[in-house]
Write a structure and sequence with these properties.
Elements (H helix, E strand, L loop, with lengths): L11 H9 L9 E5 L12 E2 L9 E2 L3 E4 L13 E4 L4 E4 L11 E4 L3 E3 L4 E4 L9 E2 L10 E3 L7 H9 L4 E5 L3 E6 L4 E2 L10 E2 L2 H11 L3 E4 L7 H14 L2 E5 L10 H8 L1 E5 L3 E2 L5 E5 L2 E6 L3 H19 L9 E5 L11 E11 L2 E6 L7 H5 L3 E5 L11 E6 L3 H6 L1 E5 L3 H12 L6 E5 L2 H10 L4 E4 L11 H7 L5 E15 L20 E4 L4 H13 L12 E2 L2 H10 L4 E5 H6 L3 E15 L6 H11 L1 H10 L2 E2 L15
Parallel strand pairs: 13-16, 13-17, 14-15, 17-21, 19-23, 27-28, 27-29, 31-32, 31-33
Antiparallel strand pairs: 1-12, 2-11, 3-10, 4-6, 4-7, 5-9, 8-9, 18-20, 20-21, 22-26, 23-24, 23-25, 25-26, 29-34, 30-33, 30-34, 30-35
Helix pairs in contact: 3-6, 4-5, 9-16
Length: 640
């Protein structure tokens, strides 16, 4: 079958205008529901009060009802006495004001003297402290306009006005169709070549959050006729249909051809990344959207197009996403001609928000899970230069982001313990982590992109950890090295050691495939140190150029069978049920600018590292020594 190219790839603005414009005037019909069940629903017609409230003069406070003219001249020097029952009546808040009375004196200003005699020291004006008839609402008055989303206090106002039923817009019904022969439901364990289908669950949750009613079909295999029949049946029952996968230009990507056959394809391909191959179509005057199967591409397309349609069909304006301005302090390359949406962390440093890009890739869910926001790079720019000010669309609250700490550097499993402990203790801040390698962490610290770094860099000349690198790269910065752990580094190998690997020299064997860590990672520095010591060339090791970014991902590659060995920590080997050959104990430190040590968040963090429960949990992972955890290894900020 001949591959297709994108029919009419357009800019995001053009796609939105061209496609959403077709549905700007379209709203869904109304349905009658009880007001008490209407929170979040949208009025389909104006709502008018059916009664006046209150329909009597009511006391606005606890006190006594009086005739205002009887209180004229009352003062501390000349108090006035009133007879209870004839000239004054006790009332509570909300009580009707007795006939013939026209004001209320609050209870704090009433002195009880003799039996039935009440003394006042201040006069009141007519209707003072009295709620008038219709003060809240008058019969026939407009209570809510059309296309208004009901809040809890709207519900109270309607019920007070005598409205117990209301006509609201029908909630948009969204049919979601996951496709792909390789997909299996989350309840099934995927076999080799199979993938868990979870996109539909994410899209279903977002549909509910935006006010729609989602329905998810079973997974449809890559068969033209099956997909077509499912689209027809689902679209018949829904206001909007979404097909997951099958939107790109591959041989088995049928969505475009089917939608051309059933209706009209308005747009195929938008200049965004991820999410370029989106299909925007109309079938039977209703929207149908085909989105890529890669999770981040699917989510971005869904957020941009489906979210807008749900709000439009509900009769609402599309809400704007909170945006802040941030600064990038590194060069950020990007492909010209595509608007790239990068996931970023944000760190408040020197009274500025700094945007630090996370891992790229439209399948990298972790980059979204740990992100603070999404940073678009305009398609006219070939990336960003240091110092660029850019808008960032927030995924978390600005207040939360400004409280949090950002660590960039080497990965260690005990960092996850810290993250969880801070949440468990409700510390008031969180620790965000970018696993980028020790050297990348130090460079991020140098650029002013993070609050602290994690490092375990071995200097091959002195045999020292971290000091020589910091002294060379950041000679003028006063930095504190706070020990997190000492840990066992060694070779992670398959259970039972089927290749009989005993040490570093075995990595050059023809039958051994290695998986490496990225350039600049402390583990890679350690490997290169040993290779040089043994006289082994990197090119002699199969897989030396293949890289992973964390100990766990390297261990997963060994456990998954794509590698026979990886250098890593014992805790990662245990977590993936691998055997472990210990080679060395190394020191892992947190690198913290000295001026931040008195910051309450760092004081809290260091005390947490010293705590018994952190040490207990870290020790249970295996391969750690924690007797110096939390200790400042270079008092006074001197480096070496």
């Amino acid at each position: 079958m001949e591959r297709k190219i994108y029919l009419n790839k357009v800019s995001l603005e053009a796609a939105l205008e061209k496609y959403l414009g077709l549905f700007k005037e379209k709203t869904l019909p109304g349905e009658r529901i009880r007001v008490s069940e209407a929170r979040g629903r949208v009025t389909a017609e104006p709502v008018y009060a059916l009664r006046t409230a209150p329909n009597f003069y009511a006391s606005a406070m606890d006190g006594i009802a009086v005739r205002a003219e009887d209180t004229v001249g009352a003062s501390e020097r000349s108090p006035i006495s009133l007879r209870e029952g004839k000239e004054a009546h006790w009332v509570d808040t909300g009580d009707p004001v007795p006939e013939g009375f026209n004001a209320v004196i609050k209870i704090e200003e009433v002195n009880e003297k003799e039996s039935n005699i009440l003394e006042i020291e201040r006069g009141v004006t007519p209707w003072e402290n009295v709620r008038g008839i219709g003060e809240s609402v008058i019969k026939g008055q407009l209570v809510l306009p059309v296309n208004h989303q009901l809040t809890p206090y709207d519900i109270g106002a309607l019920l007070e006005a005598g409205v117990t039923e209301i006509t609201v817009r029908k909630r948009p019904e969204v049919g979601i169709i996951p496709t792909g022969t390789e997909l299996v439901p989350p309840e099934e364990k995927p076999l080799k070549g199979q993938l868990t289908e979870f996109n539909s669950a994410m899209l279903k949750a977002y549909t509910e959050e935006w006010g729609g009613i989602p329905s998810v079909s079973e997974i449809i295999k890559d068969d033209y006729q099956e997909i077509k029949e499912k689209i027809i049946s689902v679209h018949r029952e829904n206001d909007l249909t979404v097909i997951i996968a099958g939107s790109s230009a591959g041989e088995e990507d049928y969505t475009v051809r089917i939608l051309q056959e059933l209706g009209r394809v308005v747009v195929h391909g938008v200049n965004i990344m991820p999410g370029k191959p989106v299909v925007l179509a109309v079938v039977d005057e209703k929207p149908v959207i085909g989105i890529p199967g890669y999770p981040l591409a699917a989510l971005l397309n869904y957020y941009i197009f489906v979210r807008a349609l749900i709000y439009l069909l509900s009769g609402l304006e599309v809400p704007e996403t909170p945006v802040v301005e941030a600064v990038v302090r590194r060069k950020v390359p990007s492909q010209i001609g595509l608007r790239e949406f990068l996931r970023v962390n944000l760190a408040e440093l020197d009274n500025e928000l700094i945007a630090v890009p996370r891992k790229r890739g439209s399948a990298a869910m972790e980059s979204l899970l740990r992100a603070d926001g999404v940073m678009p790079i305009p398609e006219q720019q070939e990336g960003l230069s240091p110092g660029s000010r850019v808008p960032v669309h927030l995924l978390k609250s600005n207040r939360e982001i400004k409280r949090n700490l950002l660590l960039v550097g080497s990965h260690d499993l005990t960092l996850d313990i810290l993250v969880n402990k801070l949440r468990e203790r409700r510390a008031g801040f969180a620790l965000n982590i970018q696993s980028a390698g020790s050297m990348a962490g130090i460079m991020a610290l140098k650029r002013g992109e993070c609050h602290l770094a994690g490092a375990h860099l071995l200097d091959e000349n002195s045999g020292e950890y971290n000091y020589p690198f910091l002294k060379r790269i950041l000679p003028d910065r006063k930095l504190a090295l706070v020990n997190l752990v000492y840990r066992q580094q060694g070779l992670m190998i398959k259970k039972g050691n089927p290749k009989n690997i005993k040490g570093i020299k075995d990595l050059i064997r023809e039958d051994v495939i290695y998986i490496n860590r990225q350039r600049g990672a402390g583990t890679r520095v350690l490997l290169d140190y040993w290779l040089k010591k043994e006289g082994i060339l990197p090119g002699d090791i199969k897989g030396y150029g293949r890289e992973e970014y964390t100990h766990i991902s390297a261990a997963a590659a060994v456990a998954g069978g794509s590698a026979d060995a990886a250098l890593g920590i014992m805790a990662a080997a245990r977590a993936m049920d691998l055997d472990f050959i210990p080679l060395v104990e190394e020191r892992y430190d947190l690198v913290i600018p000295e001026e931040l040590l008195n910051d309450w968040r760092f004081e809290y963090l260091i005390e947490l590292i010293k705590s018994a429960d952190f040490r207990q949990e870290a020790g249970d992972l295996g391969g750690y020594r924690l007797d110096r955890s939390g200790e400042i290894m270079n008092q006074g900020g001197e480096l070496g």
